[in-house]
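Annex B. Sample input.
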Amino acid sequence: MNSQTSSLAAADFEAVRTAGVHMPLTQFGVIDVKGDDAVAFLHNQLTNDVQHLDASTARLAGYCSAKGRLLGSFLMWRTADAVRLLISHDIQAPVQKRLSMFVLRAKAKLSDATPEVAAVGFAGDVRAALSGIFDALPDGIHVKVEGPHGALIRVPDAAGRPRFLWVGTKADIEAHLPELDEKLRRGPAELWDWLDIHAGEPRITQPTVEQFVPQMVNFDVLGGVNFKKGCYPGQEVVARSQYRGTIKRRTALAHGETAAPGAALFHSDDPGQPCGMVVNAAPAEGGGVDCLVEIKLAALDNGSVHVGAVDGPRLDFLPLPYAFPSDV
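Annex B, continued. Sample output.
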C-alpha cells in the first residue's frame, strides 16, 4: 500500500458504492503449511488459535518476534491438505524463511504457493456474479465456503459495502476473469488497499516489520489475538500489554495530502519526538491519501498531527468502523 502513484479513478470508488467491482490482487503472497504437525506447529508460532480453526472459518493472525513485535500479519484458513496463510507479498519470503527455521523435528513443511495461487477481491453488489462461481456465499465476517474453484471468504465491510475474497488456482481464476469483466467493473489492486484501510484492518508490510505490538494495530479488537492460547514468540509481551492497564497506542484512520508506510508522525505540541507511524496508505477519493496510522491516543485529544515532521502535511482523523474496548 503506497501513495506514490495512483491508478485509482473516480469511477472505481463510484462502482464500489453503486455497482460491483472485482480486483485481481497482486499485493499478496501465499504460504502453505502441510504435514501431520502443521496445525500444532503454527499454533505454537502465531498469535491466534490454529488448533480450533475449522473448515468454515478464516482468521487474522500475527507472527511476532521474541519482543512481541509483529514480523508479519496473515489471513489464515484450512484447505484440504494445508493451513494457508495470505500475507503481504513483500514480506512473504523472509517470514516463510524465519518460520521454517523453527520447524525442527516437527512434521511440517512450508512452501511458497504464490506461483500457483491467485486472489481476487470483490466489493459492492457482487452476489450475482459470485453465484455463477460458488453454489453458496458466506454471510458472516471471516466465514469461508470451499468449492471446486477454491475458497470464498467474507471479509469486513468497507465504505458500507460487503466484501469477499476469492482464492483459488491461478489457472481457474484467470479462466473466470473474462466472465467477471462482463458483469463487474475491474478495479486496480490499490482499490482493495483503500477498502482495507476503511475497514480499519492494518496489514504489516516491509516498512513496518517489527514496529508494533499487536494491540497497537488493533489486532486484539479485530480478533487476531487469542489471549487464552498457549505460548508463542512474544506472547508474554503481548499479554502484558493487554493486562497491565490502559493501552496507550492504537491505530486510527486518517486523511492527508501524502503519506507512506513507515513514515513517522509528529504532534504540534511535541515536535521533538515522533508520536506514531503510518501503517498503510492508499490513494483517496478526491485526491490525497487515506491511511491507517499507529499513534499515541493522547495525541488525538488536541493539537495537530503531521507526517514526516511537525511542519509536514497535516492529518485529519476519521472515525473507524469499530470501537475500542472500554477500559474496565
